[in-house]
């Protein structure tokens, strides 16, 4: 029983850290997209 609880806790920790990583990557991509859009608008004007 103790092994199951330990494995579940480790799996939960991995899943939570993966979600944070994906969210961070999404913010980075969004930021890069906004920078490209701003540059394109500056060039157009």
UniProtKB/TrEMBL annotation:
Signal peptide start-end: 1-18
InterPro entries in UniProt: Entericidin
Provide the family line.
Answer: Belongs to the EcnA/EcnB lipoprotein family.
Q: Which UniProt keywords apply?
A: Cell membrane, Lipoprotein, Membrane, Palmitate, Signal
Which Pfam families does the protein's record reference?
Answer: Entericidin (PF08085)
Q: Which GO terms describe its cellular component?
A: membrane
Name assigned to this protein: Entericidin, EcnA/B family
**Which residues are listed as membrane-spanning?**
none
Give GO BP annotations, semicolon-separated. Answer: response to toxic substance
């Amino acid at each position: 029983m103790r092994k199951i609880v330990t494995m579940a806790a480790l799996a939960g920790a991995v899943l939570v850290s993966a979600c944070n990583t994906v969210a961070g990557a999404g913010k980075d991509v969004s930021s890069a997209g906004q920078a490209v859009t701003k540059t394109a608008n500056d060039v157009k004007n």
